[in-house]
Amino acid sequence: MSEINAHNVLYDQSKELALAVVDSYYSRYPDIKGQYGVEGYRKSIQDAEYHFLYLAEAVATKEPRLFLDYLNWTRTLFNSINLPISVLERTLLLMKDVLQSRFNNEVVQRACSLIDDGLTMLSQEPVVQTSYIDGSNPLDMLARSYLQALLQGDRKKAGNIIGDAVQNGISIKDIYIQVFQRTQQELGRLWQINKITVAQEHYCTAATQMIMSQLYPFIFSGEMKERHIVIACVGGELHEIGARMVADIFEVEGWDSYFIGANTPLKDLLHTITEKKIDIVTLSVTMTYHLPELREYISKIRDTSRGIKIMVGGYPFNTSPSLWEKIGADAWASDAINAVKTAEGLLA
C-alpha cells in the first residue's frame, strides 16, 4: 500500500477508527463515563478523529513533525483545561491497537512507529511556546497596547492605536507583520492555554480585519505593476486573515491582488485564474487536515492553467518547510513579506 493509499484509508475511515478507539477506551476505563458524560464521549470521538487525520498527513507526506507538533500542541491544551496527559497517552496506545487489528502493511507499521515517537515525546518535558510579544521587537510596546485594547473589547481604541502609528511613520508592512501577525499568533497561544475564550479570539480577529480595511487608502496609493496574483483558502479552510494580510502586502508592493477569501469553491478559483490572467496562485492552509483539498486544488490548476506558478503558505508549511514540494507547489512563504520576495523570484 502506498503512502497516499494509506492516507486515504486513514482519512476516509477516520470517524470509524475514532469511534473504535473511544469505545475501547470507555470499555477499559469505565469510570470515565461518569466523569465526562455524554458530551465528553462526543468530544473524545472528535479528538480521536483529529489524531487520525494529523497522523494520516504525517504518514502520507513523510513529515513526522506534522503529527508530533500537533501532539505537543494538544498536550499544552490538555494541561490548560486540567485534562490528564494520561488520557492522550492511552488514546494513542489504543490507536495503535485499532490500526494493528485492522491493517497489516508497511505503511500502517510506520504510522504505529510514529505514534511510538509521539508517546516518547509526551514522556519528556513539553516544548512551551512563549509569548509572541516578548519585548524583543521594537514594535512590541505597540503590539501589546493594541492587543490589550482588543481584549478589553475596545475596537475603537485599537483602531486609533494603529491609526496613530501610521501617522507617526510606521510602515504598513511593519504594522501587518510586527503587530497584526504577531497579535494573531498571541491570541492563538492565549486560547490554547485557556486564558481567553473562543468568543474573545473571534472578536479580536474580526476587529483586526475591520481595522485592516481602514488602512486601504494607504495600501492602494503606490505605483502599480503589471503583475496579477490570486490568493485563496482551500474549500474547507475558514482561517482567512493570514491570506488577507498576504493579499494586502502584495497591493502595497504594486501587485494587482485578487483575494477571494475563505472556503473558496475550486470552480470559482479556476474561473478567476482564467478571467483575470493570473500570474501566480497563492493557496493558504491553516489546518493540516485540509492538505488533501490543497492537493486537489493544485492538481486541477495544473490541468487547466498550464505553466502558472503556485505558491502555498500556512501553519503546516511553517512546521515542515519541505512540505510544499511534496504537495506539488512551486514554492512556499512563511509570511507576507517573504511571499512577495518569493513571487518576484518565481517570475524573474
Structural notes for this entry:
By secondary structure, the chain is an alpha/beta fold. It folds into 3 domains: 3-122, Phycocyanins (Globin-like), CATH 1.10.490; 140-217, Methyltransferase, Methionine Synthase (B12-binding Domains), Chain A, domain 1, CATH 1.10.1240; 222-347, Rossmann fold (3-Layer(aba) Sandwich). The chain has helices at residues 3-12, 14-28, 31-61, 65-80, 85-102, 106-122, 140-151, 155-167, 172-192, 198-214, 216-219, 241-252, 266-275, 291-304, 315-319, 323-326, 336-347, and strands at 228-233, 256-259, 280-284, 309-313, 331-332. A 5-stranded parallel β-sheet has the order 2-1-3-4-5, sandwiched between helices. The radius of gyration is 22 Å and the shape is globular. The model has no long low-confidence stretch (mean pLDDT 92).
Give me some keywords for this one.
348 residues; alpha/beta; Globin-like; Methyltransferase, Methionine Synthase (B12-binding Domains), Chain A, domain 1; Rossmann fold; 3 domains; five-stranded parallel β-sheet
Give a summary of the structure in a few sentences:
Helix content is 66%, strand content 6%. It has 348 residues and is an alpha/beta fold.
